[in-house]
Amino acid sequence: MxxxxxxxxxxxxxxxxxxxxxxxxxxxxxxADDDPRIxxxxxxxxxxxxxxxxxxxxxxxxxxxxxxxxxxxxxxxxVLISAHRGANTLAPENTLKxxxxxxxxxxxxxxxxxxxxxxxxxxxxxxSTVDRTTNGTGNIKDLTFDEARALNAxxxxxxxxxxxxxxxxxxxxxxxxxAKRAGGGIELDIKGSVTxxxxxxxxxxxxxxxxxxxxxxxxxxxxxxxxxxxxIYNRDTWEPGFLLYEVGQVFKVFGxxxxxxxxxxxxxxxxxxxxxxxxxxxxxxxxxxxxxxHARSIGADGVQTNQPALIVAAAGEAVDSKLxxxxxxxxxxxxAGNGLGFPGKTVRLAKDQKSxxxxxxxxxxxxxxxxxxxxxxxxxxxxxxxxxxxxxxVPSNG
Length: 398
Prior knowledge:
Layout: H1 8-16, H2 37-48, E1 80-84, H3 96-104, E2 109-116, E3 122-124, H4 145-149, H5 172-182, E4 185-190, H6 197-206, E5 214-216, H7 220-225, E6 230-234, H8 241-247, E7 253-255, H9 263-271, E8 275-276, H10 288-297, E9 302-305, H11 308-314, E10 321-326, E11 330-335, E12 346-351, E13 354-359, E14 365-367, E15 377-380, E16 389-392
Parallel strand pairs: 1-2, 1-9, 2-4, 4-5, 5-6, 6-7, 7-8
Antiparallel strand pairs: 2-3, 10-11, 11-14, 12-13, 12-15, 15-16
Helix pairs in contact: 1-2, 3-5, 8-9
C-alpha cells in the first residue's frame, strides 16, 4: 500500500495496525460505518494511546457539531504560527539563517525537514537528495555529517551569489539551540532517511523542547522516549468526525491542507483538546493571508506558513524591535527580546536636518556610509509585523 508523502501519519497508523497490503485506499461513496479503515485506525490508536502522557482534556464533546457545527469554533486567542522550512523567502530554506529570521518574528514553531546522515546525525534538508539545493549530488542518507556540512546549501536560485552564498546545511542541534534562545519549538517533519526516531525525540528532550515541539510521525519510539511528545496528524477528507475525535486522543495537533478542513472537522479536533493548524501556502504566495483568514474563520488555531511576517501582521501579533550598533559602521534592527535580526526593513538616520534611509540585510544590519553620521538618531517606523523603535548611532567597542 502506498500513500502520498503528505499522509505519513496516516501511513504510519496503518502500518502500526498491520493492515494487509491489499486494502484499497480511498472510499468514495462508502458509508462511514462500512469503512474498514475505521477499525484499523482504532487498533493503531489503542496501541499508541497507553504510551502518551498528555494533560487531561476538560472539553465536553458535542458530537452533533461534528455533523453540523453551526457557528464555527473560535481558534486559540494566541495564534499558532509555524514557519515552513523557516522564513524561506528571506534566506535559503532549512538553513540556520532561515530559522533565525522566522524566530525574529516571534513564531511559535519552525518546521524542520529532518534527515539522518550515514553516521546517525540529524540535519535539515527537504529532499532525499542534496542535488536541488546544494552543490553536491546523491542521497543525504549516504553522506556523513561532515560531508553534508561541507556542501553549499545556497547553491540554487534565487540564493546563488547572494549574501547567503555560501551556507551550510543546518544541524538539528543548531536549530534546537536557536529555538531554545527564542522560546519557541520545532515542528519536526521526519523524512524517510530517519531510522532512529527515539534518538531524535531524546535529542529534542535534551534541549527541553518537548512541550513546545511537535512530531510529524506516528512512530511509537518517539512516545517511548518522550511520553509527553505531541504528534501531528495530517488530515484527509474521508475521516468522519467521530474518528477525528478519537484520533485527537493521541494526535494533539492536526495539520495538512486547508481545503481538507471544515468547521465540523475543526470542532471534532477541538473536542479532543487538539489544536488545528493547516497550511496557508498551498494556494500560492499571494493567497497566504487570505488562506490564514479563512482558516481562522472556520476555527483553526493557526497555520503553517512560508511567509511568517505576513501572517504575524495579519494575526495582529507584531513583535517589539530595537536598534543596535555593531562595530564601527553597522546599525541593526533586531527583535527586542531575542536579538535576532530583521532583514529587508528600512531604517532612517537623521542628523543636522539631513536624513538618509538604509535597507537592512544580513542579520538585519545595514552599513552606515562614512563617519559623518556618528551621533545621528536612528529610527524604524514600524510595520504590521514589527513595532517601531528609535535609537542613537553611538559606535560600540566591538
